[in-house]
Amino acid sequence: MSTVITNIATLVTNDPSLGDGPLGTIRDAAVVIDGDHIAWTGAARRAPATDNRVDAGGRAVIPGFVDSHSHLLFAGDRTEEFNARMSGRGYTAGGIRTTVAATRAASDEDLERNLTHYLGEALRQGTTTFETKSGYGLTVEDEARALRIAARHTDEVTYLGAHIVSPDHADDPAAYVALVTGEMLDACAPYARWIDVFCEKGAFDGDQARAILTAGKARGLHPRVHANQLTYGPGVQLAVELDAASADHCTHLTDADVAALASGNTVATLLPGAEFSTRAEWPDARRLLDAGVTVALSTDCNPGSSFTSSVPFCIALAVRDMGMTPDEAVWSATAGGAAALRRADIGRLTVGARADLTLLDAPSHVHLAYRPGVPLVTGVWRRGVREV
Predict the structure, then answer these.
(1) Rounded Cα gap, residues 225 and 248, in angstroms
(2) Which end of the chain has fewer CB atoms within 10 angstroms, the N or the C?
(3) What is the pTM of this model?
(4) Pairwise CA distance, residues 319 & 335, whole Å
(5) Nearest to 180, CA basis, from 198, 202, 201
(6) How far apart are CA 267 and CA 276, in angstroms?
(7) What is the chain's alpha carbon radius of gyration, rounded to the nearest angstrom?
(8) How far is 380 from 123, CA to CA, in rounded Å?
(9) Segment 351-381, tens digit of pLDDT
(10) 386 has which bridge partners?
(11) With the CA atoms of 242, 244, 249 and 250 taken in that order, what torsion angle do they form, in degrees rounded to the nearest 10?
(12) For residue range 286-313, what is the model confidence (pLDDT) as tens digits?
């Protein structure tokens, strides 16, 4: 069955050959869905005949958001920690370790229920593709079950046994690295596409991160890196060296880091929800973009430092506080996220692409930044099926 969505005020295709500017925008447009893919885009007056017709009512249509960085396999929350931070009070509870304890104690059913809750929340806000990670179990059994559950809901599953050194190995980090690169990797690799490491002071240093990512590559997992979030460090350079798909956070960058990203294939994934929730320094998106770096925007949805599933919120933050234009932010949250997952079938509305698209209750995608906090998503199609 084919469906035309017509009377679109502004259609964002992310293909400059199809329309205006880098977003390839088409005014007074239509898009045709045939099965699970895009079959045609162009001016509404030229749309071919189809089995079904949807009137967009003069609204904008954009590609579904691609959230390429999230941590949704967890239990519990950290409300008290956030409240203390926002109230200027000291907080001495366990941080990530609090979530690790709650996640280990949760049943499989509880973890999956939590995951599907946040996936539904994200879908209603226009997210049609998401990546998610383990990293709150930190035992062989708990990491493997997190990935097993995640793999039932997405192809973009990331093994993050190297989130922090497990509390069980606090006195012997080398033994934990051996576990992450050995028995734990063996148990987790069948469920994952990616391997990630938190390369940061207090987590894993450059040598440890290289060993972990190299072991993952040997098992067929492609690298991603939590890089340069809290301090300057080796994470970005390591990501480029190992051809990681993405270096995520990228808050503290030297000129050499920016040059490395510009010369390689690694996407800089920026996560403004983390800076918002921790009152940290904003990443300088303008610096990266002006250097020619490919930039993605994602939520980093997690219970500790960025408890948002809203890509529109992150777009508004990126425009307001990170130097991005509305066009750049929308591209980074769609095509940029696809690049961070090394996918060519999503993040764009071109012939042959997957029919993942979002209808906004606004005439232009610019309203995502222009009207922050307003629930503008009024329709979502995923794989050609309307789900919102």
Answers:
(1) 6
(2) N
(3) 0.97
(4) 17
(5) 198
(6) 22
(7) 21
(8) 7
(9) 999 999 999 999 999 999 999 999 999 999 9
(10) 381
(11) 50
(12) 999 999 999 999 999 999 999 999 999 9
